[in-house]
Each structure stands twice: as structure tokens, then as C-alpha cells.
Specification:
The complex is a heterodimer of chains A (284) and B (201). Chain A is 22% helix and 14% strand. Chain A is of the alpha+beta class. Chain A has a single domain, classed as Alpha-Beta Plaits. Classes of the chains: A alpha+beta (284), B mainly alpha (201).
């Protein structure tokens, strides 16, 4: 792809769905999050910290926006005309959406973030040079930068606590970008086990850390290619199509009954996470 | 003005080239023969005696008799002391040799032998022994020692194992790009995965 070709046919490139000509054959990992079930308890976030060796940065750095919550609970308040809302919080767990046409991938100057064959948006730490372009271009703000060398100079995991680090996940050093991986270390193990038995990964065989701990089961995760997978069925019933940037159901009359939507779909990012809208009292 | 510019460019160029030459001279990135460093082991384990050819006085023991996890786990596994003793308690002929004596000292002290790592990959790399052994030994029916040797070299001729291959990313990819037959009989070929996240974690 030469640069002149890219510039001349820019709109074509943006219109094109990235996996149109290369459909996912074996796996397409996807998630759906039921906002009606989400109670905003933050268990998913805590599980993610434990699973993925995320540093706890402390109040001061958190205020500077240096926190590392790969999955964070965003709060939205219905303030109903009051100056400060005191009730009616709505929660939205926000994580890397693993976009099929990820804005972060196109801007990385060193190719540290790529799309994998399984439809994941990969981040390779040892290739990352810390330009932070990806962070700037991510509409979901789901990427986190290591401003400090947390394991050494900041000593986030002092002596006995370094034993809790997950050996399957790199402990990131200073100057690299990181983000939700859909617990790729678990996916790799599940895929390898399935391969040894000559089958593909069964639905429910692999869970992400956030899904595993969610007390209300709001998060489901699975292989969208598998017709029996719960996630695929959810996407189907909600009539959300991975490969469309505008869902057909949205213009239809009965759309109000369907709760599925993807965030900032109109930016043509083709995210892999579907949210199920919260049911409001008025709509019941 | 231009004169100054030219001069400064020349100077910078000179400094850079000299310093890079100096850096090269001090520490070469890889040794010419890709050999790893010599690793001092607590007991000088003779791989040649155990796995070597019978004609050369070896016992021709399968690699996976001791490194038993290679076919079913991410790591190949260093055998526990029980495995050594399991055979050696019945081998009277070498019972009084210095290395075996040392081995039994560990056994009687109920301590594991502190073997040192020879093939040490960086922390950001995930290498799965199982996948490679399943592919080459079980699917393609390659001899075990040949399959292990792709990465570990000809261990059956060594005493203490030493890294023989660079184990760099380029070296891994050079094999992953090749077409490998999917099994012993089929003509269908496939190549290794080239996804970043297959190996990087």
C-alpha cells in the first residue's frame, strides 16, 4: 500500500470493512455487556488488576489521569434538574472494544498494535516506543500509558507482593502503552488445549477475568464464529451485525424493544463489544 | 554559513561512525556461531551418556522420558530428583562415581538440585513446547531428537547443555515462514502462526 494510493483512495479504505476479504475462520472473540445487570460494583476492574499485573498508582497519579484500569466503570447520572444528582446512577464498564477497524492500529508508527487473526487488537509491549498516537486516536480512551516504571522505581509490588504477579502476563516497564487484551493469555491456553484434542474452543471453556468475577453475570464472552456460542446468539437476537456501521434495526419500528448497541459505531470502528441498554422504568 | 553547516554535519557523522564502531567493538550482539553462554551446573549432567547413540556409549533414552512435560505443557520441565534416583538406585556400576555421589547427597539432604536455566527466553515471550512436539513428533512422525534439535541443537552429543541457536525473533520467524506438512502422509502444508500475540504476551 503506497502512500499515494492510500491518499487517493482514502474514502474507500475507510468504507471497507477490514475483514471483508479475510473473514474470521476459526475464532472471532467478542463480548456483550448487559448494563441492566451491571451494578457498578467494580469487581471486574479488581479482577483485571489481579489478572493482568496492573499497577495500583495511588490517588495523586490517578488525579493526573495516570491510572491503569483496563476496564473501568463509567458513571452517568440522571440529575433530573437538580444541580448535583444524588440518585439514578447508570454504570457502563468501558474497556478496549477490540475494534475490527481500529483507529489505534493505523496510527502506530512502529506497528506495535495489530489486528490478530482472531479479531483481537493486539499490543506488543516490546515493540512499542511510546509515541502515544494510539491513545490520542482511540475514541474510547481505553489505552493506558506507563508514565513511570512502576515495578522498580515506584515499587508498586514490594518484596512479597511480587509473588502475586501473573507469570503469563508481561510486567510492563516505563514508556509503553497497554490496554485490555481480552485476557489473551487465557485464550491462548484454551486454544492450545482445544487443538491438542482436535477441536475448537467450546463456548464457556474460556472466560475473561472480568467475566469470571462478575457477580450478576453481566458480561458474556465467546467466539462469534461459533453458532452455538451465547455471545453470538445475543448479538443475533439483538440484531447487531459486527460488519455494519449502521444497524438495520435502528430504522425499524420495533427497534425500541431491542437493547443491543455498540458505542460510537458511527465512527466505523466496528467494535467487538456489544452493550445491552439499561431498562428504564418508563419503558417497562 | 554553509561551510559551518557542512563542517558540523561532517563532524557529527564522524562522531557517530566512530562511536558506533567503538560500541560494536566492545560488545558484539551475537557471537558468530550463535552459541549461548556456558552455564555452570551444580552437577555436570552428561546428556551424551544418557541420550547419545549406543555406538558411542549412549543409552539412547528418549528426551521425553526425563523432560516429560514437553508433549503436554507449555514448558518441557526439568526432571525432579526422584526421576534420577528412580533409575540410579538400581545402577550399581556407577554408584560410587563423583557425580552420582553428589546426586545422592542431594537426595539424602532432601533438597532439589538447583539446575540453572540454559534456554532462557525474555519475559515477554510465550513459547509452547506442546504445540511444537505435537506437530513434529506426533503429527509428522519426526524422530524426537530431531524435533527437539530444531531449537536445542544436537543435545545428545553434549555433556552440559549449551544454547546452540540464537532464539531470536527473526530466527523463530525464519522457520514459521516455511511450509510444513500438516502430518506424515498428507501433502497439505501450513506454516507457523505469524500473529504477534501468538508469541508475545
Amino acid at each position: 500500500m503506497s502512500i499515494t494510493n492510500l491518499l487517493e483512495n482514502w474514502s474507500d479504505f475507510r468504507q471497507q470493512h477490514p475483514s471483508d476479504d479475510r473473514p474470521h475462520r476459526e475464532y472471532k472473540w467478542a463480548m456483550s455487556i448487559d448494563l441492566d445487570a451491571c451494578t457498578g460494583c467494580n469487581a471486574c476492574s479488581v479482577a483485571c488488576y489481579a489478572e493482568n499485573n496492573l499497577p495500583v498508582v495511588g490517588k495523586e497519579k490517578f488525579l493526573h489521569g495516570h491510572s491503569h484500569h483496563w476496564i473501568r466503570i463509567e458513571r452517568y447520572w440522571a440529575n433530573d434538574g437538580r444541580e448535583f444528582a444524588d440518585q439514578g446512577a447508570q454504570f457502563l464498564p468501558m474497556l478496549c472494544q477490540h475494534c475490527e477497524s481500529a483507529p489505534c492500529e493505523t496510527v502506530c508508527p512502529v506497528g506495535a498494535t495489530n489486528h490478530t487473526a482472531d479479531g483481537l487488537n493486539s499490543q506488543v509491549y516490546n515493540r512499542c516506543v511510546g509515541s502515544r498516537y494510539c491513545n490520542a486516536n482511540c475514541p474510547y480512551k481505553a489505552r493506558y500509558f506507563n508514565w513511570y516504571d512502576y515495578p522498580t522505581t515506584d515499587n508498586v509490588w514490594p518484596e512479597p507482593m511480587n509473588q502475586q504477579l501473573n507469570p503469563d502476563v508481561t510486567v510492563r516497564g516505563k514508556g509503553v502503552m497497554e490496554k485490555c487484551t481480552f485476557c489473551v493469555q487465557r485464550l491462548t491456553v484454551a486454544k492450545s488445549n482445544a487443538r491438542s484434542e482436535g477441536r475448537s474452543v467450546l463456548d464457556g471453556e474460556v472466560q475473561t477475568a472480568c467475566q469470571q468475577v462478575c457477580p450478576t453475570g453481566a458480561i458474556s464472552f465467546g467466539n462469534l464464529v461459533d453458532p452455538l456460542a451465547k455471545v453470538g446468539k445475543q448479538w443475533m437476537t439483538q440484531q447487531v451485525d459486527l460488519n455494519k456501521d449502521k444497524q438495520a434495526k435502528d430504522v425499524a419500528e420495533e427497534a425500541a424493544k431491542l437493547r443491543g448497541y455498540r458505542i460510537l459505531e458511527e465512527l466505523r470502528t466496528y467494535p467487538s463489544v456489544m452493550y445491552l441498554e439499561q431498562l428504564r422504568e418508563g419503558s417497562i | 554559513m554553509y561551510c559551518f553547516l557542512r563542517l558540523s554535519v561532517l563532524l557529527v557523522g564522524l562522531i557517530v561512525s566512530v562511536s558506533s564502531y567503538a560500541a560494536n567493538a566492545v560488545q558484539p550482539l551475537t557471537t558468530a556461531d550463535d552459541l549461548g553462554p556456558k552455564v555452570e551446573q551444580p552437577i555436570e549432567f552428561p546428556h551424551d551418556r544418557h541420550a547419545g547413540d549406543a555406538a558411542k556409549g549412549g543409552m539412547q533414552i528418549n528426551c521425553m522420558y526425563c523432560h516429560t512435560y514437553a508433549r503436554r505443557s507449555i514448558v518441557a520441565g526439568i526432571p525432579p530428583l526422584q526421576k534420577c534416583i528412580g533409575c540410579h538406585q538400581n545402577i550399581e556400576s556407577v554408584r560410587e562415581t563423583p557425580r552420582i555421589k553428589k546426586l545422592f547427597e542431594y537426595w539424602e539432604a532432601k533438597k532439589a538440585v538447583p539446575w540453572k536455566k540454559v534456554h532462557d527466553l525474555p519475559d515477554f515471550v510465550r513459547f509452547n513446547h506442546e504445540r511444537h512436539i505435537q506437530r513434529f513428533v506426533f503429527a509428522q512422525n519426526k524422530p524426537v531428537q530431531e524435533a527437539c534439535g530444531y531449537c536445542h541443537g544436537d543435545v545428545k552429543t553434549m555433556t552440559v547443555a549449551r544454547r546452540q541457536k540464537p532464539l531470536s525473533m527473526g530466527w523463530c520467524v525464519s522457520c514459521h515462514q516455511k511450509d510444513h506438512p500438516v502430518d506424515a502422509t498428507s501433502t497439505k502444508t501450513t506454516h507457523g502462526p505469524n500473529d504477534c500475540w501468538q508469541c508475545h504476551k
